[in-house]
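Let's study a protein:

___
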Amino acid sequence: MKQKETKAVSKRILHLDARVTQEEYDAVKKRADECGKTVSKYTRECTLGHQPKYHLTEREIEALTSLTDARGDVVRLFSQVNSKEPEKRKLYFKNEKFRQAWLDSVNKILAYWDSIIDKMKE
């Protein structure tokens, strides 16, 4: 039978103090809460050069979900148009320049949406 490997855990026994105003404390507490961390853990991470990640609010999660769904709809529409034979595409787009401009615009929108989604996930 394999033995479990145990990892040595250092106990935090030292203490750092910093004097802050009530407003400063409230601001740190608010940021810690937004990250889902204790004030101690948040302060420790910031002090050590880490950037704690903020949790998305319910409203931001809804917006991200909606944005992702809308992006999926546009991708499906784009794929449908591109997959049609040239003769069938003419039924949707009588002008080839307009069709190409539409496809280019959709590509730009998709790239922009991707950048927004990536930033929200950071």
